[in-house]
Amino acid sequence: GTRTFYREGCKKPVPKLNFTPNENGCGPQNGFNPVPQTPLNMASFTSACNEHDRGYATCNRPKATTDQRFLNDMKLICLREYPVTGMYSAMSLTQCITNADVYYKAVSTLGDDPYKEGQAESCDCCEECPGDQQKCGTECCRKGFVCGTKGLCCEDCQPNWKKCPMDEGRCGWGCCMPDLSLCCPGMQAGKIRCCSPKGKCYKGGCG
Fold this sequence. Notes:
This protein has helices spanning about 45-55, 65-80, 85-110, 110-120; strands at about 1-5, 15, 125, 135, 140, 145, 155, 160-165, 175, 180-185, 190-195, 200, 205. It is α+β, with helices and mostly antiparallel strands. Helix content is about 30%, strand content about 20%. The strands form six sheets. Strands 1-3-2 form a three-stranded antiparallel beta sheet. It has a two-stranded antiparallel sheet with strand order 4-5. Helix 1 packs antiparallel against helix 2 (about 65-80) and helix 2 (about 65-80) packs antiparallel against helix 3 (about 85-110).
């Protein structure tokens, strides 16, 4: 295939070569960051946030997978920070896990754009043919060409033209302009004749 820059709608994303994801802790990559690394001055979620950044910027990793790991990492931080030894530590653990749930819900509902940005940064497109043109068998078609019914590259009909099936020829169709959009059998077997839609087909031609 051919490696090209990533674009939305890419059919086959592949990891970008020599790419290193950015990490910035909790919050957006650029500009003012209102998201605290230690919510309510409790456990720091910075390491979990950094791993979440790496997840979003890992080509082809599903968003839901990264978000779920983010929640699991934060809960592990809470368990390490507040082992339950009494009422106070139990309350602190409960509050820490509540903070983790809030962060998780935020990325789950508001993280679509950052995820798309991360994928765009970390992926290239692998195209079988340059410009993502159609491929017929082993042949890459030129721009504006498509696969014909016989498996060969054929120039497609112009916009608004009528595509008429036909047995003869390379492509398996013929093209009729808009004001002659009635497809009629031609005089020779397998041929077509383009006629006015106001008329009718008659004896290998237009009537």
